[in-house]
Design a protein that fits this description.
By secondary structure, this protein is an alpha+beta fold. The protein has two domains: about 5-200 and about 325-410, Zn peptidases (Aminopeptidase), CATH 3.40.630.10; about 200-320, Alpha-Beta Plaits (2-Layer Sandwich). The chain has helices spanning about 10-15, 15-25, 30-40, 50-60, 130-140, 170-175, 225-240, 280-300, 330-340, 355-360, 390-405; strands at about 65-70, 75-80, 95-100, 115, 120, 150, 155-160, 185-190, 195-200, 200-210, 215, 250-255, 265, 265-275, 310-320, 325, 350, 365-370, 375, 385, 405-410. The strands form five sheets. Strands 1, 2, 3, 7, 8, 9, 16, 17 and 18 form a nine-stranded mixed β-sheet that branches. A four-stranded antiparallel β-sheet has the order 4-5-20-19, with no helix packed on it. The chain has a four-stranded antiparallel β-sheet with strand order 12-14-10-15, with helices on one face. A hairpin with a 5-residue loop joins strand 1 (about 65-70) and strand 2. Helix 3 crosses helix 5 (about 130-140), helix 7 (about 225-240) packs antiparallel against helix 8 (about 280-300) and helix 9 packs antiparallel against helix 11. The longest helix is centred in the last third of the chain and has 23 residues, at about 280-300. It is elongated.
Length: about 425
């Protein structure tokens, strides 16, 4: 990535970027209509196919010839480089990836009937991430390789599996495959025009199971009890000392087991969420959690009646979101901060779990930003988005992308 933060002023004031901002302003109503249309298409994690096909059709309609849906369900639309060779031959052909996730947290039977009242849109997923997808389309339309030329190709990608148990499935496939040589990555996620997520909040998620013979709570008493072991494990996990810096959290988030009020269960389970900005902390508490489970299993088995079969336990990793950081002084972060100031906002550096986690963990400079406007009640059916002054956030995204792709503001490619 060649463009540095000090160049944003020249780029921002260039005739080509002013024209592109005007074009985006003219697309404001279309962006909102696309936002509503996307929200009406159910896309729970793992079931993004219909929404992916809709996005692929829109990319084709705006004239992108290279559009494909990969084996993971990601939609990849490439605008080729248009400004000649990259400044260094080793960078030739390396893309800037701009991505927005397709999936939502809502099950397929959720009522999807978004409403609009003036500048306010309401509906499940209207901001997270219908907004990001709609703005992705608008940016792909404006960055047509003519008025603004870039030395690097720009890949507009709609990813699968960003939410919850999706475990960043689409981003992991993308950055280990088609975009493994990306020069930079920018994720559009939800609303907003100030936050710059440059620290990736990593997480490990576990399902812990205990299994035993079970039996009647009176006549089989003395058989190891999986619920007892689960409770001992939960207490052991809760007592682990957690550092405040680097910030780390460890939470038992769900538990279950048992058949009836007068039965010793045959099985019990816990689900645990471990998060940290530090890979070392994730590794440390992975070991500590597994030690707590082993200790709980031994504890419960130590009280079993002689001759009864022992309790067994199993720890399964069900989610792995990598962590890491794009340094504050990296040109991409500096570029994003200057672009934020250019729209009259104060940049807010932040930590979050987004598609940007994956490229950051692989050493690819990456950030996540909002796609303009304001929003709230995310992950609820009353989620809302307000379009007041939302163009500013779209303009910010444009400037960051063009800067990252070493864009030529003159349109001449020189």
């Amino acid at each position: 990535m060649q463009t540095t933060a000090h160049a944003i002023g020249e780029l921002w004031q260039s005739a080509a970027l002013i024209e592109a901002r005007e074009a985006l302003a003219a697309l404001d109503e279309e962006i909102l209509e696309h936002q509503l249309a996307i929200t009406r298409i159910a896309a729970p994690s793992g079931e993004e196919g219909e929404r992916a096909r809709w996005m692929a059709e829109r990319f084709a309609e705006i004239g992108i010839a290279d559009v494909a849906i990969d084996d993971t369900g990601n939609v990849i639309a490439r605008r080729p480089a248009s400004g000649g060779r990259s400044q260094s031959s080793g960078d030739e052909g390396r893309p800037v990836v701009v991505c927005a996730h397709l999936d939502t947290v809502f099950p397929s039977n959720t009522s999807l009937a978004p409403e609009r009242s003036g500048t306010r849109l309401t509906g499940p997923g209207i901001g997270d991430n219908s907004r990001g997808l709609a703005v992705l389309l608008a940016l792909a339309r404006v960055l047509d390789g003519s008025a603004i030329r870039t030395r690097h190709p720009v890949d507009f990608v709609c990813t699968t599996g960003e939410e919850g148990a999706g475990d960043l499935r689409g981003a992991k496939a993308l950055f280990s495959g088609a975009a493994r040589n990306a020069i930079a990555a920018i994720a559009l996620d939800g609303a907003g025009d100030e936050r710059i997520v440059h620290r990736a909040l990593g997480s490990l998620r576990y399902r812990i199971e205990f299994h035993g013979r079970g039996g009647h709570s009176w006549t089989s008493y003395g058989v190891p009890n999986p619920v007892h072991a689960a409770a001992i494990a939960a207490a052991g996990i809760a007592r682990l000392p957690i550092p405040s810096e680097p910030r780390t959290t460890l939470s038992v988030v769900r538990t279950g087991g048992g058949l009836s009020l007068n039965s010793i269960p045959e099985s019990a389970w816990l689900e645990v969420d471990l998060r940290s900005v530090s890979p070392a902390m994730l590794q440390k508490y992975d070991v500590a959690l597994r030690d707590a489970v082993r200790a709980a299993t031994l504890d419960e088995n130590s009280r079993r009646t002689r001759g009864t079969p022992p309790l067994v336990s199993e720890v399964t990793l069900i989610g792995n979101r990598p962590s890491g950081e794009t340094p504050v002084d990296h040109p991409l972060v500096e570029l994003a901060m200057e672009a934020t100031r250019a729209i009259g906002r104060a940049p807010e550096l932040a930590t979050a779990s987004t598609d940007a986690n994956v490229p950051i963990s692989l050493g690819i400079p990456a950030i996540a930003i909002g796609a303009g406007g304001r929003g709230g009640d995310a992950h609820t059916e009353t989620e809302w988005f307000d379009n007041t002054d939302a163009q500013a956030g779209v303009w910010r995204a444009l400037a960051i992308i063009v800067g990252a792709a070493a864009g030529s503001a003159t349109g001449s490619g020189t």
